[in-house]
Design goal:
Elements: H1 2-28, E1 59-68, E2 71-83, E3 89-98, H2 109-125, E4 134-138, H3 150-158, E5 162-166, H4 177-185, E6 194-198, E7 204-209, E8 219-225, H5 229-239, H6 246-264, H7 268-274
Parallel strand pairs: 1-4, 4-5
Antiparallel strand pairs: 1-2, 2-3, 5-8, 6-7, 7-8
The protein binds 2 DNA strands through residues 64-70, 72, 75, 103-106, 108, 111-112, 138-140, 143-145, 149-150, 164-172, 176, 220.
Organism: Platanthera zijinensis
GO molecular function, one term: single-stranded RNA binding
InterPro entries: Endonuclease-V (IPR007581)
Length: 276
DNA sequence: GCGACAG
DNA sequence: ATCTTGTCGC
């Protein structure tokens, strides 16, 4: 009995993955890893400040999905929009959903992307004035076993420039936390807070970043869509008040609060119908 | 075979 | 992802 259910679940999981791999490989053909946007990135402290022509990016979106311990299939997706110059939240959207798909390493997008895309679609239909010009995603871009993580998935399907942010390293192409740690601590890298991530194959996967002066644990940045690695790093630098870039941090905080309020106000029953 | 495995 | 109190430092 026990072994049978394991066998069945194992079989469905692997056939699912095979199908998902094909989807990822197909979507990957549409992936753009160069800057492909009309706005400009505000110059950092060391850059010349003279851009009178093109308009600077104004609205940066941050997305995250939170869960409830008591009911792991219940999730709240959040999209927050920040003013790039102040990092103030100017808009927020939430969507509570029932997840039907389990989390499988390498296939995060099949769990979380539909929620994010749903929110974006709703905003786009309304021609919302705060529709983001770029998305920062809580998960990797090309730093992924097949070079197509959540940020790529969301970026391609929404056709928005996207950047992936990992709070933990997904081990790919020989990359490891230990290796990154050594490079960050290396004497020749003193003061450097960005370490390019080159795998043993020579591939550039993104970068590890010490996002605040005193943070020990780096974040992992990789382009999702329509942006280069270098530009991704410039954007992330603009957003780091704390270790986790503000757009993602706010999406994380606010999606959690949203679920807390549902719990506190006993609205869980109505969710059985609204959150399909 | 063993360990690793974004959120 | 989820939980959680105190604690350290500016």
């Amino acid at each position: 009995m026990e072994s049978l259910s394991f066998a069945v679940e194992g079989a469905s999981a692997s056939s699912c993955q095979q199908e998902w791999i094909e989807i990822q490989d197909n979507l990957k053909r549409k992936l753009v890893l160069e800057d492909d946007f009309t706005w400009t990135i505000p110059p950092g402290v060391s850059c010349l400040d003279r851009d009178g022509k093109a308009k600077r990016i104004q609205y940066i979106g941050g997305v995250d999905v939170s869960f409830v311990k008591e009911d792991p299939s219940l999730a709240c997706g959040a999209l927050v929009v920040l003013d790039a110059s102040t990092l103030d939240v100017v808009h927020e959207e939430f969507q509570v959903v029932r997840l039907k798909v389990p989390y499988l390493p390498g296939f995060l997008a099949f769990r979380e992307a539909p929620i994010i895309l749903g929110i974006l679609e709703k905003m786009k239909q309304k021609d919302h004035p705060f529709y983001p010009q770029l998305l920062m995603v809580d998960g990797n871009g090309i730093l992924h076993p097949r070079g197509f993580g959540l940020a790529c998935h969301v970026g391609v399907l929404s056709d928005l420039p996207a950047i992936g942010i990992g709070k933990n390293l997904h081990h790919v192409d020989g990359l490891s936390e230990c290796g990154v740690r050594k490079l960050l601590d290396a004497r020749e890298n003193m003061g450097k807070d960005i370490i390019p991530l080159f795998g043993k194959s020579g591939q550039a996967w993104g970068a590890a970043m010490r996002s605040t002066p005193d943070s020990v644990k780096p974040i992992y940045i990789s382009p999702g869509h329509r942006i280069s690695i270098d530009s991704s790093l410039e954007i992330v630098k603009l957003c780091c008040k704390f270790r986790v870039p503000e757009p993602i941090r706010q999406a994380d905080i606010r999606s959690r609060i949203f679920l807390q309020k549902l719990k506190g106000s006993g609205n869980l029953i109505s969710l059985e119908y609204s959150a399909q």
